Amino acid sequence: MPLIARQPPVDPTKPSIARAGHTFLGGKDGYEVERRLVREILRAVPDAASIPWACHRFRHRACRFLAAQTGIEQYLDFQVGLPTAENTHQIVQASRPEARVVYVHHDPVVLAHGRALLEDNEFTHMVEADVFTPSSVLDNPAVTRYLDFGEPMVLVHVGTMQFLPESSTVTGPEIMRQYIDALAPGSYVVLTHFLDPEIPELTEIAQRLERLTVDAHAAGWFRRADEIAELMTGLDIVQPNELSAPGIVVCDEWWPDGPRMIPLNKPARCVAAVVGRKPSAVP
Known about the structure:
Blueprint: H1 17-24, H2 32-44, H3 50-69, E1 74-78, H4 88-95, E2 100-105, H5 108-117, E3 124-128, H6 134-138, H7 141-144, E4 154-157, H8 172-182, E5 188-194, H9 200-215, H10 225-229, E6 236-237, E7 249-250, E8 271-277
């Protein structure tokens, strides 16, 4: 019996979060149903594209930092969109050319396009598995062939856990606990999540965006900072900037590349970022 069931054929009448995210970032490989969803979201919240762009920039900064300063050369990325420009493998391999990157996805279109894009990169691979079923990833021979869980690695959860189905029989913290338990000490987790900032004018935007995705059958859930922090239980949180104590911050405030010249718009304040390190075992 295969570890992973074959995915059903692509239904072009239903939006895919992966392809919608790719569309937000200027990609052209989605279907009209994703383009329509993006148009509807932008009509309701004109600056909503700030959210996927903030996640994209955070991923770049976090992976660049980890590749340059930790010496880790293996990365497990639960890819939301297509691995195109400025994605994890390009970021880390710029400073560590032989770093191994494994992307995990279940969307057939993402898998097909991604494998074609990565065909000539011997250190980067795409694997079919369900991020919300950790055993399908951790026990997957296509993952363990390229990554050694006995050594530190970077686990990239950018834009994934907010899409855990409401019908799931396991919670987000339970899923993350399985992944964190499988990591070697010294590993890092990079995570973003839709944020309810608990400020009335921003909570209203978060709720509006949540309703739009629920109505489109592509539900993305906005959670409070304390709920997001539960996903990182057991990790030592990396200080996110010079002024903040270790904890959850909005994506664009995690070690920005320079001083902020333009204030963040409201949607950009509705997505959170955090990086944590798995400590050494206590003797």
